Backbone:
């Protein structure tokens, strides 16, 4: 659970690999200063900023943005470092807010590397300040804590750095601002002077540019971290063009204006490994698409409300309800509406074109865990020796550009179970398929997910169990049963259901007791401690009250100790249980065997259309991959 901090409050840090996310209403200059045991900054080399974005244990966003991120590895920090300060400053640029009081209050969130929240702090009460110390991460008696600071400086970044003992603070601050200005040039377009402001307050924390602008302001449709220049024709970069390993020194920038990149590059996001960089880049593409569409919809809504107000004003005057004057006023209102919508669409199309170009470069570079089943990367598949940080469950897209599909990645190990809904959906694709076919497709989707999970784990690192009470899933299960990768035969009938559930329930109980008692080495030798997945078909057929209770227990307690559910069911079939199963459905992530717009993000409130990752018709890719998995498990007799 995320702790909401107030100014001066501290909170323990339970992990060492952290991410610090900032949400603000304006572009920021993100910096980190490192201090010794006395809190002193030893020199400019102890300051991380967009011009020098990485030091051992710290990496910062390479551009000014409304949502910069910091990656921190406390174990990798030099031993002399006892304090890490997160600094935020407003760029000194014409037209930008000169003080934090003129923009929405920034908020800072500290999370684990997997995104789980630790602490959050909203920097309220700022007014004339243009730079602020947001947070401190400090070491006391060998343990790290985070403190909410919120100390602002009206003199800007120079005054802040001088207060920390940095020599020539004004020159250092000027160099940092110049670096940010060079990186922003050509990547953040100035607001359009005639762009409208959406009526009504902005969604808190939405991160939509321009959402917090006041009356008479402008909407900024630009991506904070991506070029808005017309994209070049994308091409898959050669292997030699990949991002150098973390820690490789960056070459000094040549004098003069910064050269614009030739086009999008796969793996150019922040991260310690290529796996992490690609994951962060995919997440950044999702954020950019959400932000651009939110700005477009907001502009369209504003144009419509403005036209309605103009028409109401015309109709409120009896003299203008009829006649040439009224007609001219109505035509002018509609023309202005069309002009505003066309301008917003032009900006959206440019942003979408850039995201399409980036997607065409990123998609071929994705590793098997992130790739579609039709990707050529599967033809060179080898069983991995390490588990990746995430897995692709399918794609998501928005109606403004259905062809632009963003990979839907979930972190590993799974934090919650999955539910493949085999019932009717409200989508056109669901309505076009009969019930029996939909159930078959749902089970095929579940088998595809199970195959992916087996493929991305090392040999012996993942086991799959199946409950198929009446044997209706024999056809879709054939790839798993034929390859011999199941932990045992599918549980059939009431006895088979009870046996599978009893075995997994026992595993959860024993592992929980061992963890609580600090006796992990005392687990029975026959207990499989690998991650486990239970596929349940045709629920609730074959389940009595005891089995239903065990299933709910596995859904609630299993993920924490490596046991995960994958339900294939129609919720309507379980209506006889009443609301007793509602906690079960809420505990699972719902996906569908056909495209369906049931996924809603809490960031900007879009309804995303989910599309499953299906094996192409006639393809043997899943069979070949499972064959490799089975061969790799033989030496371990798994």
Residues:
């Amino acid at each position: 659970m995320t702790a909401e901090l107030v100014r001066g409050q501290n909170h323990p840090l339970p992990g060492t690999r952290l991410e610090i996310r900032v949400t603000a209403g304006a572009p920021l200059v993100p910096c980190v200063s490192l201090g010794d045991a006395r809190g002193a900054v030893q020199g400019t080399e102890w300051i991380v900023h967009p011009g020098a974005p990485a030091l051992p244990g710290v990496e910062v966003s390479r551009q000014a943005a409304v949502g910069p991120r910091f990656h921190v590895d406390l174990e990798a920090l030099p031993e002399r470092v006892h304090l890490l300060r997160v600094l935020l400053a407003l760029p000194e640029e014409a037209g930008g807010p000169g003080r934090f009081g003129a923009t929405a209050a920034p908020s800072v969130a500290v999370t684990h590397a997997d995104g789980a929240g630790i602490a959050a702090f909203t920097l309220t009460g700022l007014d004339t300040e243009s730079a602020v110390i947001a947070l401190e991460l400090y070491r006391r008696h060998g343990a790290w804590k985070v403190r909410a600071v919120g100390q602002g400086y009206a003199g800007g970044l120079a005054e802040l750095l001088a207060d920390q003992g940095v020599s020539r603070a004004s020159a250092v601050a000027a160099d940092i601002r110049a670096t940010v200005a060079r990186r922003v040039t050509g990547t953040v377009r100035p607001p359009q002077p005639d762009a409208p402001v959406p009526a009504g307050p902005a969604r808190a924390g939405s991160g939509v540019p321009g959402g917090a602008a006041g009356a008479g302001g402008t909407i900024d449709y630009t991506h904070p971290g991506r070029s808005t220049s017309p994209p070049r024709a994308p091409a898959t970069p050669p292997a030699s063009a990949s991002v150098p390993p973390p820690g490789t020194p960056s070459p000094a920038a040549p004098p003069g204006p910064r050269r614009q990149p030739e086009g999008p590059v796969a793996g150019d996001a922040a991260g310690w490994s290529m796996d992490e960089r690609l994951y962060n880049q995919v997440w950044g593409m999702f954020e950019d698409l959400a932000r651009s569409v939110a700005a477009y919809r907001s502009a369209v809504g504003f144009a419509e409300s403005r036209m309605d107000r103009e028409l109401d004003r015309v109709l409120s005057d009896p003299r203008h309800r009829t006649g040439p004057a009224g007609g001219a006023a109505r035509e002018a209102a509609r023309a202005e509406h069309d002009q505003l919508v066309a301008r917003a669409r032009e900006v959206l199309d440019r942003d979408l074109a850039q995201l399409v170009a980036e997607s065409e470069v990123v998609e071929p570079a994705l590793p098997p865990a992130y790739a579609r089943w039709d990707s050529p990367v599967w033809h060179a598949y080898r069983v991995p020796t390490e588990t990746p940080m995430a897995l692709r469950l399918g794609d998501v897209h928005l109606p403004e550009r259905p062809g632009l599909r963003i990979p839907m990645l979930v972190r590993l190990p799974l934090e919650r179970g999955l539910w493949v809904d085999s019932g009717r959906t409200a989508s056109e694709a669901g309505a076009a398929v009969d019930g029996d076919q939909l159930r078959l497709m749902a089970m095929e989707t579940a088998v595809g997910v199970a195959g992916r999970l087996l493929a991305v784990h090392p040999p012996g690192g993942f086991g799959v169990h199946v409950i198929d009470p009446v044997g209706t899933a024999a056809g879709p299960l054939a790839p798993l049963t034929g390859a011999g990768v199941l932990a045992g035969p599918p549980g059939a009938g009431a006895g088979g259901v009870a046996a599978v559930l009893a075995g997994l329930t026992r595993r959860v109980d024993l592992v929980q007791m061992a963890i609580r008692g600090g006796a992990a080495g005392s687990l029975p030798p026959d207990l499989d401690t690998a991650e486990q997945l239970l596929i349940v078909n045709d629920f609730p057929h074959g389940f009595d009250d005891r089995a239903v209770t065990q299933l709910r227990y596995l859904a609630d307690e299993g993920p924490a100790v490596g046991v995960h559910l994958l339900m294939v069911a129609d919720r309507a079939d379980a209506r006889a249980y009443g609301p007793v199963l509602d906690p079960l459905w809420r505990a699972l992530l719902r996906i569908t065997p056909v495209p369906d717009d049931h996924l809603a993000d809490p960031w900007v409130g879009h309804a995303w259309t989910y599309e499953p990752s299906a094996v192409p018709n006639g393809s043997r890719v899943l069979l070949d991959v499972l064959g490799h998995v089975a061969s790799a498990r033989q030496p371990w007799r798994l």
Observations:
- The chain has eleven helices and 22 strands.
- The first strand starts at residue 3 and ends at 5.
